[in-house]
Amino acid sequence: MFQRLYLLILCSFNAQINQRCVLNSRTDFGQPLPVIIRNGELLLPNDNNGNVKLNYGEEMTLSCEGAGTITHPSVTQQLTTASVTCAGGDNFRNDNWLTFPARFAMFRCSDPPNTNRPIHTSRRKNRTCFGGNEIVQVGYTIQGQFYPSFESCFDHANLHPIYSKYTQKPYNALYQTRVDRPYFKDDGHYRNVPVDTLFSPRNQRDAVARFVGSLVETYVTEAQHLSRGHLAAKTDFVFAFSERATFHYVNCAPQWTGFNGGNWNTLEVDLRDHIHRAGYDTIIYTGTEGVSTLVDKSGRRVEIYLYNDVNNNPVIRVPQYFYKVVYDPSTKRGIAFVGINNPYYTASEARELFFCEDICRRSGNFSWLSWHPDNPAEGYTFCCTVPDFRNTIMHLPEFEVTGVLI
User: Fold this and answer.
1) What distance in Å separates the CA atoms of residue 268 and residue 246, rounded to the nearest whole number?
2) What value does the mean pLDDT take over residues 332-342?
3) Secondary structure of residue 172 in the 3-state scheme
4) N or C: which terminus of the chain carries fewer CB neighbours within 10 A?
5) pLDDT confidence of 352, banded at 50, 70, 90?
6) Boundaries of each DNA/RNA non-specific endonuclease/pyrophosphatase/phosphodiesterase domain copy (predicted)?
7) What pLDDT, on a 0 to 100 scale, did the predictor assign at position 119?
8) Residue 245: closest CA among 139, 151, 152
9) Is the separation of the CB atoms in 251 and 232 below 8 Å?
10) Structural contact between residues 184 and 252, judged by C-beta atoms closer than 8 angstroms
11) Quick check: 325 and 315 in contact, CB under 8 A?
12) What is the pLDDT of residue 10?
């Protein structure tokens, strides 16, 4: 009797295990993807290989708020936001608005991707960062509730991002592919500055010409010009809604295209893959420092900005440096990767701008990093210990570092 009861309980338990849902970030999420909330947060994988695993009966919320309605071959009514429940495998149910079974990969928003929706938004927090600046969180507002994806320390007086902060885990290497690139969004952080138009070929040429005159033709070329350089990269995030949220002006700064598509991109790709292989659970601070210079007609080095404000003060600097500080709280180890954002420095001039001992050149522990650190067209690059980095870059938040993350 007791043995039979035990077997029935065991069979029931095994049936529930077999009815779990497993969704992979590369194969089971469509486009345009609704924003997905799980356990009160934006959806993230829960294993290192980009899988979302749910128990039978576990619920998630889908929302196309601002992007039409949720579409699926199984829908029985048009809804903007609704819940779905794991029914095993890749099937979900909600008998109030779906016929069963409903395969998860077929959920979409009715608006096409090129309409730039669902629309991410930002909000200032009642927390401050370096210089007393208010922290800005970027994410989505669903039914009046805000769900952050990452945060930015943004200098609202001088109109430039100081750094963006986010997490990078092994599953970030398995980001959702074929996600359209939306337009960048401002949300009023740049006040009356027409930041959307500053990167047009004509406007950036005019901006640089204010400082170097006719020499602008030698600097702003088809091969080298200024782009909107992400701090937190699009593909540093797993799902489409978080990838799209990176297209916010508090998360970008003027970056020379050779560096953008060269060593900065190489670092982003290599770092994601390395964190995946090593199994690190990290916090990333990626930011800017200083103002890049060019030589004018008089042979003087002049700082470059994209705009003058109403008081004729230069704002929206072209940064001298872009950096990524990678920190693993569990081991208290970290490292700083730094790139010089200027293809027009000579090798000796760039060397003068190295403000620490380059531990990537000194050590053989960074063979995973495939950048070309001495190629000016791709951006001169170097690496620092975090304490060394702090000697020059003062705005990095305080955290305990006991060693180098390799």
Assistant:
1) 14
2) 98
3) helix
4) N
5) very high
6) 146-389
7) 86
8) 139
9) yes
10) yes
11) no
12) 35
